[in-house]
Amino acid sequence: xxxxxxxxxxxxxxxxxxxxxxxxxxxxxxxxxxxxxxxxxxxxxxxxxxxxxxxxxxxxxxxxxxxxxxxxxxxxxxxxxxxxxxxxxxxxxxxxxxxxxxxxxxxxxxxxxxxxxxxxxxxxxxxxxxxxxxxxxxxxxxxxxxxxxxxxxxxxxxxxxxxxxxxxxxxxxxxxxxxxxxxxxxxxxxxxxxxxxxxxxxxxxxxxxxxxxxxxxxxxxxxxxxxxxxxxxxxxxxxxxxxxxxxxxxxxxxxxxxxxxxxxxxxxxxxxxxxxxxxxxxxxxxxxxxxxxxxxxxxxxxxxxxxxxxxxxxxxxxxxxxxxxxxxxxxxxxxxxxxxxxxxxxxxxxxxxxxxxxxxxxxxxxxxxxxxxxxxxxxxxxxxxxxxxxxxxxxxxxxxxxxxxxxxxxxxxxxxxxxxxxxxxxxxxxxxxxxxxxxxxxxxxxxxxxxxxxxxxxx
Length: 459
Ligand code: F0G
Fold this sequence. Notes:
By secondary structure, this protein is an alpha/beta fold.
């Protein structure tokens, strides 16, 4: 089916889930009750839910059939071996430690490899990843290319690592203080921006020279592979599967939130190539997640994941998945609304600083924009700006990221093109009344990952 230009879905619909519609008055009450935080809305109050692409995928009939083959043995479930085989075959990593989701794997690898005072360079932070690095005593340093911080810059691989900057970090702190480079494919906080194979190869060369590991956050590796195929010279004829395997081959291990690209509602893993590190991780998982052959998952969850991994590397799947995201991005951009360019793999990111230039960053423009979009039509999105960035653990001061964004994240295989049209129309409607929108103040702030539970009031 490669010859088709259309991104039309390579599946048909067998079952539907009815949506709840709300009135403006109901939404006004709901968002106030939620403290202007879309994480605190009930999903029954939401019409189109673009909060996240995490755990929100529709599974295939094959995956559901796999759920029925769940082997719920405490130890040695046959589904574990099936998953292990899928990870080895598809990604090429040698050893598998299943975890309940991505942050379970981040917890283990951070605790295992990071010592107090260590430095972890990475291509832009992710909220849970950085927090686990900090809790283990490390300090995250951003080494993404500067283009990634500019929403207007159309660089095709805005997820790339700035190797010059990384070399300076190595020189400054010394390789001994750097347990690994934290490399994400499809950089979430930058807007789902890919890393190029060329950059990965150069990164491998540089880190090998200094004996530094690369730990790969492979949560959205299939989407990254799609962009390499589309944009990088020499990759157009390669299969998505072979590109993914090549990406993984330049790294020493990986953390995976299978709730994204691997098409499941729950699950994750840590994958490793070094036996001694694996041995310790396998020992540690017993303490924090569960036995090393289930890591906090039911047998059926591991089976659905094994099948989902296989489906996620099909060209037709990923072409339709990213195609739908690009469709929405184009519609919103055509309406004149400022967004992060180029559009990434998992969602469209509204540039809240440009959308609401009259609201200062410490009055939470992205938080308010997400609330207003909900109010407009019941669409749920997520703040990815100053609230998500949190406070510096040393100084206690707010971190002010250059990107103040609202993420419209598209669940995989869930919504239709008509839903995307409604989303674009709603965003345009909020844009039309943007000048009347005022900022927010924070009235409750939790200590960790505050964006999940913070509460706000309109100014
Ligand atoms: N790494 C990346 C790049 C992620 O996007 C996420 C989760 C994680 C790690 C953590 O995985 O949720 O399974 O524990 N991102 C979700 C999101 C929450 O909405 O972007 P997890």
